[in-house]
Each structure stands twice: as structure tokens, then as C-alpha cells.
Design goal:
Layout lengths: L1 H20 L9 E8 L9 H12 L12 H7 L3 E8 L10 E7 L15 E8 L2 E7 L2 E6 L3 E8 L4 H11 L4 E8 L5 E8 L5 H9 L3 E7 L2
Parallel strand pairs: 1-2
Antiparallel strand pairs: 1-3, 3-4, 4-5, 5-6, 7-9, 7-10, 8-9
Helix pairs in contact: 1-2, 2-3, 4-5
């Protein structure tokens, strides 16, 4: 079971890390909802380790506490964080333990407004593809970017040349782009671009991205 869940354990921690970094100020997290989509019954999928890794991802970036399976629930309770879990039961083969994991943080402000879902929470969702964790949803936007490095999220007006403009800024600093994905509401409307990078761009490069006329907001998220 542990071998089977290994890529999902990695995904769970990284979704927690992404979600907490989207919170303005990184603090004030009190209400977290985790949703697991699965074809398996409750007796065939123990989520305790997944919950512990999400807790680790939520807490470690904003504190000096080390979180593990043994102390995760106690540490969350000590910090006033209430984590609830929900299962979405899917039809189909239970061969794959999970289809996706979704993490939502309620009652907080976001550093990246597009990460707020229609129901008002910060929302990130991910899947495992070929044993590699992928970010597949930010707020209401569908994206698809590997969670192997760090991520830049940009919201921009959907128009030709945007990928090239952002890529050129990163290329000038020799920052390698590993993946890039664009999710949009409709052609020529709002779009969110998720860019996987191997290195952390300088503050100057990030400033240049923010100065691109069609970029309305952006955020760098370190994994």
C-alpha cells in the first residue's frame, strides 16, 4: 500500500505547500478541507498518511516545526487548524488509488486572486501522471504542470505571444522552464499560466514579468 501511495504522498505535501503560499501573509489558516476522488471504498484507502503530508505542507513553510505522521494532527490542533476530509466516490476500476486530491483553505485572503474558487476558498487540485505529481487546477482554472520544481502563476489577458514574453524574461536569466500550461475561461478572455521552473528567478526577473502589460497578477511558489 505504501509503495502504491508514494506518488500521492508527494502530491499531498506539495499541494499543502502551494495552498499555504497562496495565503496572503502565509498565516491565518484555520479551516482546511481536503477532498479525495477515488473508486475505492473507505476500507481500501487509509488517508491518514496523506492528511499528515498535507498538514506538513501547510505548516512547515510558515514555521520551524517539523511535521510527521505521529505529530501531524496534534500540531494542526495546536495551531488552531481544523482539517476536514471528504471522499468523492467515482465509478470505475479501483486499480488507481486516487484520481485527484483537492485542498481548499477558507476564510483567508489570497496573494493570487485567481486561486479563489467560485465558492470563495483558495483551491488547488492535483493528480499523479506517470508517477509524477501534477497541479491540475488553481481556483476555477484548469492547468497541467509538473510539481518537480517551483511554479510561477500568472493571470493575464489571453492573447498571442504571452508565453513567449514570459519565457524570454526567464531565458535572459538562464532560468530553465520545465513545463508550461495555460488555463482560460474563453478565447481572448482571462487566462492563468502555470510555469514550472528549475531555479528561483531573481526579484528583478519577477518584476519584469509583472511589468508585461497583459499580466494582471502573478506569484512565485517555492516547492
Amino acid at each position: 500500500m505504501l509503495t502504491e501511495l508514494k506518488p500521492f504522498i508527494d502530491l499531498a505535501e506539495k499541494l499543502g505547500r502551494l495552498a499555504v503560499q497562496l495565503v496572503a501573509g502565509g498565516s491565518g489558516v484555520k479551516t482546511v478541507k481536503v477532498t479525495y476522488a477515488t473508486s475505492r471504498g473507505p476500507d481500501d484507502l487509509d488517508t491518514r498518511l496523506l492528511r499528515a503530508m498535507i498538514t506538513k505542507g501547510l505548516i512547515e513553510p510558515i514555521s520551524s516545526v517539523f511535521v510527521n505522521l505521529v505529530n501531524a494532527d496534534f500540531t494542526a490542533k495546536q495551531r488552531g487548524i481544523r482539517i476536514t476530509e471528504e471522499r468523492v466516490i467515482l465509478d470505475g476500476s479501483p486499480e488507481n488509488p486516487l484520481e485527484f486530491i483537492q485542498v481548499q483553505i477558507a476564510n483567508v485572503e489570497s496573494r493570487f486572486a485567481s486561486a479563489i474558487s467560485d465558492s470563495g476558498e483558495i483551491k488547488v487540485e492535483g493528480r499523479v501522471k506517470d508517477d509524477i505529481p501534477h497541479l491540475t487546477k488553481v481556483g476555477s482554472f484548469d492547468v497541467d504542470v509538473s510539481l518537480e520544481g517551483s511554479i510561477i502563476l500568472c493571470r493575464q489577458v489571453d492573447q498571442p505571444g504571452m508565453i513567449g514574453k514570459v519565457g524570454s524574461v526567464l531565458g535572459e536569466e538562464n532560468v530553465n522552464v520545465s513545463f508550461m500550461s495555460v488555463g482560460r475561461i474563453a478565447p481572448r478572455k482571462q487566462a492563468v499560466m502555470a510555469i514550472g521552473v528549475d531555479e528561483q528567478p531573481s526579484k528583478e526577473s519577477l518584476k519584469k514579468i509583472g511589468e508585461i502589460p497583459s499580466v494582471e497578477e502573478f506569484v512565485f511558489l517555492k516547492l
